[in-house]
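Per reviewer request, we include the raw input and output of the structure prediction for the construct analysed in the revised manuscript.
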Amino acid sequence: MNLAPREADGHPTPPKTIHVLAFDDNDELDVIAPYEVLYTIRKVLDTETPEVSIVSVPGTTKDPRAVCGIHGVTFGTRPLEPGEKPDLLIVAGGGYGVGPPPIGIMKVMHDKHFAGVIAEQYNGGRLLASVCTGAFGLAGAGVTRGRTMTTHPDAVDDFAKASGAHVLNPDTQARVVDDGKVISCGGVTSGTDLALYVVATFWPEIPSLSKSVRDWIDYHFYAQVARV
């Protein structure tokens, strides 16, 4: 395992389409933090790319065009089209440790349609990311075994059992983990760090972009990153 520079390169092609995958009882910040950071790229560069969307899987939500978060906040979502694969799919978390019955990610991780979207993204060679306990969604899709990942610190042991992954503790080892095809991060607020890592990693030819995005959202904490 190599610790990455705070502003690292290595993924040469900036994603043109980025989807944040939401569901009922997701953690709202898991969705909004990466969405806002990555949408800010458009404002800083005064461009129409990347296209950043909050999406849902048809048949897995009460409302086909909206989800209600675990704290009662409702988001409008765009239902995914069959076979649609963005350049980067970010899976939110939320619902771990609540119930029974399972809610949030602990429920949809077992839904064949939800898991199928994640598996298609992974098997199609597109980049995949998880925020917080969104990592369980990747485990449900069968794409985590043998990979190195992280999740919410309280869920590390359960995720290791469910995923077959080598799991790093975000509090003591790495808050963001880049395993090549999969990027994961620690709990809730770590979605901001993951998104900023994506900015620095995929747009290295614009060195000022990462700083400009950080200035825009007034966030100057640099998380520890592991690249494996």
